[in-house]
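Hi P.,

Sorry for the delay on this. The queue was packed all week, but I finally got your sequence through. Input first:
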Amino acid sequence: MLEICRSISFTFRCRSSCPARRDQDRATLDVLGVVFGPEKRPFGESRDTVKLALNTSELVQRKNVQYDSAFTLTPGEYHLKFVVRENETGRLGSFETDLVIPDFKSIAVKMSSVVLAGQLRPSNKKKSDNPMVRDGSEVIPSVTHVFSAGQHLYFYYEVYDPGRSNGAVRVLTSVSFFRGKTKAYETPAISSDQLNAPERRAAVFQLDVPLTQLKPGFYTCQVNVIDDAAGQFRFPRLALLVR
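Then the structure:
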C-alpha cells in the first residue's frame, strides 16, 4: 500500500491573557496532536512545546503563531485533533478536522493537495522530510486563503509518477483565476520534464503570482495540470480573497 507523507499545518492565535511581564520573560505552548483511524484507533501522535519569542505579550497581539507537524499515513479516512495549552494561564484550545488520504492506484493524475502561501522564509536545513522545505527556503502555508494586493501568492503542489513517452516525462501546468464565470487572469504555462523530488517520485511545481495582477475580491483558482506523456489531466479548484 502506498504511503504518503502529508504535512498538516494549522494556525492558532494567543490572546493577550498573560499578565504584563518584562521582555526577558518567556511563554510556552504545549501542543498535542493525534490522528485517529476507523473505530477511533490512534494512528499517529505529535507532542511538542513551542517557545515564544521575547516580548511575548506584544508579539501575540500582533501575530499568529503557526505550528507545523507531519504524519505518514496510508490511504483511508482519518480524524485529526490538536489540543494547545498556554502555560502562562493554563488556557486550552483545540482544533479538529477530517482527512481523506486518496488511493493513488485509482487516480489517473496522482497529485498532492495544492498549498497556497503568502510568504517564504529562509531555511538552513540541508535535508528535511517536510516537502515545504526546498532549495534553502520554506513555504509558509496560508490557513485563511486571505491575501493583500501587495503580496506575492505562491502555489505549491506535486505530481507523482507521471507517465513517460520514450522514457521522458512531460507535465504542463498553469493557474487560472475566475470571478464568477469570467476568467480574470491566467499564469503562463510551465512544464517539467524531470522528477525534481526523486525520493517521492514527484515533479514539484512552485508558482509565484504577484497579486498586483488581480483586483481586490473573491476568486476561484483553477490549477491546470496536464500529464502530456500519459494523455491525462486534472483541474482542482480552490477559493481565495484578495483585499
